[in-house]
Amino acid sequence: MKPTIAVLPGDGIGPEVVREAVRVLAIVRPDLECSEAPVGGAALRAGLPALPDATRALCERADAILFGSVGLPEYDGKPLDARPEYALFLLRRDFELFANVRPVRVFSGLEFASTLKPEIVSGLDCTIVRELTGGIYYGQPKEQRVVDGVECAVDTMYYRTPEIERIARVAFDLARTRRSHVTSVDKQNILETSRLWRRVVTRVAAEYPDVRLDHLLVDTAAMQLVRNPRAFDVMVMENMFGDILSDEAAMLAGSIGTLPSASLGTRTHARGRFGLYEPISGSAPDIAGKGIANPTAAILSAAMLLRTSLGDEAGALRIERAVEATFADGARTVDLGTPASSTTAFADAVIARLQST
Ligand code: IPM
Ligand code: MN
User: Most buried pick, 288, 291, 323, 355, via CB within 10 A?
Assistant: First the structure.
């Protein structure tokens, strides 16, 4: 049987960038079966739930999910289960995609695209490991109430030790393949969940005597990320801290449009580990449909998919080298400078380099 990829383009720039990633995949791996299904606002607009049953069924039988993005302004203010984002919430929860891996790299030639000084970001290579199925996103109670005639709302940050142990192991295992340094981020001066987090991560660290562990408070981490980002190798943190710091870290790379991500769980199949791969940029409705979105994050997400879910390291490297070469040769999308290529022209440039290697 051919390896199957569930392609869920979603909203905003999602379809534009995923289309290019699929074109790239078709060059490197013509044997893949890529099947598309609606998700998020694209599904809601068609009168379906954010994650339609048929889309979920496709994901169930796929080796991996290539995801675009979800979110549309017309759903702002609606309850979570009527919003496009609910699809991602359900996929993460129901496929137990607890480990979100977000590599942050500054490509050579793009140092000047960052708002930080080039000498601060040049050569930056760190990875954020974000816990993705717990914490304040999922804790109960989570609701709006009227108490004594006053509108109130509550979200709950809740963690169980096994959830912290497994995400810590993802971070330590990853660090072993890199510079053997983990920074755990928490808010232990205020939050009980953070005091548990720090204790558990410290305990897990004993299994990895070869890996250096530091702890940082999240506010300090936010500051250090812009002060001296190259001090970091692997950073591990709870769900919402990871959401926020990964967008901050994305800016170090010059554009959020260059950063891929993998969301991994415990499911495995004959070829590797099941996962969901997506650009971290979101749907960017302001530039959707203009053909100017940067497809790099989606293309690099496809590379991560090959590596982790299909065990195809060679294919992944081929794509990553082609993207590097494209930037090194001066190609840019509008988020990165001028003269700018369109989404498709940039992908064409990557494909041309793939075909010549
Ligand atoms: C992300 C996104 C999502 C999140 C949204 C779309 C629900 O911002 O993947 O970082 O907050 O996790
Ligand atoms: Mn986010």
Answer: 323
User: What is the rounded distance in angstroms from the CA atom of residue 201 to the CA atom of residue 194?
Assistant: 10
**Domain limits for position 211:** 111-252
In this structure, the answer to whether residues 6 and 92 fall within a common structural domain is yes
Active-site hit among 75, 137, 138, 277: 137
pLDDT in tens, 304-332: 999 999 999 999 999 999 999 999 999 99
Neighbouring residues of 165: CB distance < 8 A, sequence distance ≥ 6: 200, 203, 204
Which of 212, 229, 252 is the endpoint of a domain?
A: 252
Mutate to test the pocket of ligand 1, among 86, 88, 248 (most ligand atoms within 8 A of CB): 88
Same domain? 177 vs 45:
no
Rounded to the nearest angstrom, the gap between the alpha carbon of residue 335 and the centroid of all alpha carbons in its chain is: 19
